[in-house]
Design goal:
Largest sheet: 8 strands, parallel, barrel
Shape: globular
CATH topology: TIM Barrel
Radius of gyration: 20 Å
Strand content: 5-15%
Helix content: 40-55%
CATH architecture: Alpha-Beta Barrel
Mean pLDDT: 96
Length: about 350
């Protein structure tokens, strides 16, 4: 179990969509924590290039995150929304992308991970079936599955997952839910860890709103073996975060869950697009493809009002510092927090 080998119980989240780079992952691994590369939204060839680049930077074990495909959505579900955002495309002088369904080359990325014997393969948006997990085990890979409620945790455990990544509602970016729907119950990270600790006998990694060493200590105390951080690394120089996104991370603001950019529930910093298009339906990845040109134009123009500014609720705590330095600081603060908690517990002890 790779969690047993970690010198520092911190995991760098995959950060699909641009922020993930081999340099970021290598820096985190070199600092004694664990790091993921993101396969999401990339071609199989580009994923292979990232994996080769990471191997040139470090020989430390790493993880690769793969998206589980969503179900096909009837085009009638999102037709009105495409009409609504057409004015955004006209304003930016671009054409909306084709609102197509695809599986993000799931099978090919799975084959690549197996062929390369990636030490840890994690899954988001669902759990692969037991046969796929058995194939990964056969190639020597551990399988980690992101879950957002106790029912998903039970399904992942039954399928043979080795580790569960418990994602609280505080997390930035996409919710890892197996099925995105309006009537689901969302859990904060602390509540989720308590429920999963009582329900499943699997190692847990807690993620969502973790930005300090004290927060890492808190999830460890709640039963997690490690804490996964994503937003905290967005301002690191090794991350591929766009300049416009970096700039907004330095400003005061608030985050909200939205489907406006991709058709799947995700947490981002409020901006004009998010606010004005709050009625986006559940239609992933169709809306993701449709808005891709808008977001690309926003990045080129440096216009944060049309960007998906993914960020967790503690994004105001982010800093512009190298990833290894951040890991070292979190580790020191974690030790201090555990020491303080131990003293406080001792003061409360009877006698």
């Amino acid at each position: 179990m790779f969690l047993d080998r970690l010198r520092i119980p911190i995991v760098q989240a995959p950060l699909a969509g641009g922020a993930s780079t081999p340099e970021l992952t290598a820096a985190v691994l070199g600092a004694g924590a664990f790091g993921f590369l993101a396969a999401g939204y990339k071609t199989v060839e580009d994923v292979a290039v990232d994996m080769a680049a990471l191997r040139r930077l470090t020989d430390a074990p790493y993880g690769l995150n793969i998206f589980v495909p969503d179900a096909v959505v009837d085009p009638d579900v999102f037709a009105d929304y495409l009409t609504e955002i057409a004015a955004e495309a006209d304003r930016l002088g671009v054409v909306l992308g084709e609102p197509r369904h695809d599986d993000d080359s799931f099978a090919a990325k799975l084959d690549l991970a197996i062929a390369e014997r990636v030490p840890v393969v994690s899954f988001t948006f669902g759990c692969p079936d037991a046969a796929i997990i058995e194939r990964l085990h056969g190639s020597g890979s551990e399988v980690w599955v992101t879950v957002t409620d106790p029912f998903e945790a039970a399904d992942a455990a039954a399928a043979g997952a080795d580790v569960l990544i418990a994602q609280g509602i505080e997390a930035g970016g996409h919710r890892g839910s197996f099925v995105d729907r309006d009537d689901r119950e969302d859990y904060g990270l602390l509540a989720l860890l308590q429920l999963l600790t009582a329900q499943v006998d699997l190692p847990l990694v807690g993620t969502g709103g973790i930005g300090t060493g004290a927060a890492v200590a808190a999830v460890l105390a709640a039963g997690a073996r490690a804490a996964q951080l994503g937003t905290a690394f967005l301002r690191s120089p090794e991350a591929g975060t766009s300049a416009a996104h970096r700039g907004v991370l330095t400003l005061a603001g608030r985050t909200r869950l939205t489907r406006a950019f991709t058709g799947r529930s995700a947490r981002g910093i409020e901006n004009r697009f998010l606010t004005e298009h709050s009625t986006a339906p559940v239609a992933y990845p169709q809306i993701h493809h449709a808005t891709a040109a808008l977001r690309r134009a926003g990045r080129v123009a440096g216009d944060p009002d049309v960007l998906n500014l993914w960020a967790g609720q503690t994004y105001p705590l982010t800093e512009d510092r190298p990833a290894a330095d951040l890991v070292a600081t979190l580790s020191r603060d974690l030790a201090d927090a555990l020491s303080t908690a131990s003293r406080q517990a001792g003061d409360l002890a009877p006698g």
